[in-house]
Amino acid sequence: MNKNELFLKYNFAKKMLETEISILMEEFVFLHGYNPVEHIKSRIKSEASIIKKLEKKGYEKTLANITKIPDIIGIRIVVSFLTDIYDVVATIKKSKNLIVKKQKNYVENPKDTGYLSYHLIVAVPIYLAGKTEYVDAEIQIRTIAMDFWATLDHKIQYKFSNEIPKEIKEQMYENSLIIRELDERMLKLNEAVNSYIKE
Ligand code: 0O2
């Protein structure tokens, strides 16, 4: 397999995944009369990021090793409230087309940086020349508040070519605690709003 073939497969898998997620979310709205999704973004990792990731993992820069990276294709589902994360995860797990291979709950167990999100590694089927093949992809599910923190954290990481200063890391960690509290408060507020509407 050459590089063009590999990236053609990634492109097909990304389209399949986008379609599947969009159908699952539309079905969710139909069944529950509520849309938990704020926005969805997907991407194929840039060559520069792939090289960085291979180096981080200590892999040689070969095509075969690229296929060992499960997040070359990534889709991010940004939801309104904490409980929406678990509703979306449960919906994806029920999909007949995606195979969930791994899950990481950084909402319950945040990373040392303070990073909060729910990750699923899924196998996405693609149909090529009459055959079904599977391509791995990463789905990140998080609230808008978590997404705000992670987006700014990502920008900070890019500003430092070397190690990020300790005080910056500490401040970002403290800010992640505020994000956690804010998500809890917004959830309670939403429950209060809903109870008014029901009355
Ligand atoms: P990019 O540029 O966002 O794609 P592991 O070996 O399993 O511990 P791995 O394989 O890096 O580590 O997986 P992990 O940490 O579960 O998830 C990787 C992705 O999660 C990252 O992809 C980021 O998108 C996101 N992420 C993880 N930790 C942080 C963090 O501290 N801050 C931010 N902003 N995002 C984080 P990439 O490929 O590293 O980067």
Q: Could you describe the largest sheet, including whether it forms a barrel?
A: 5 strands, mixed
Strand ordering within the main sheet: 1-2-5-4-3
The SSE order reads HEHHEHEEEHH
Low-confidence parts lasting 5 or more residues at pLDDT below 50?
Answer: none
Q: Can you give me a brief rundown of this structure?
A:
The protein is built from six helices and five strands, in the order αβααβαβββαα.
Characterization of the model:
With 199 residues, the chain is α+β, with helices and mostly antiparallel strands. The chain has a 5-stranded mixed sheet with strand order 1-2-5-4-3. α5 runs antiparallel to α6. The N and C termini lie far apart (62 Å). The model has no long low-confidence stretch (mean pLDDT 95). The chain binds ligand 0O2. The site of ligand 0O2 has 12 residues, from α2 and α5.
Summarize the helices and strands and which ones pair or pack.
Layout: H1 3-32, E1 37-44, H2 47-57, H3 63-66, E2 73-79, H4 82-93, E3 99-105, E4 118-128, E5 131-143, H5 144-159, H6 166-198
Parallel strand pairs: 2-5
Antiparallel strand pairs: 1-2, 3-4, 4-5
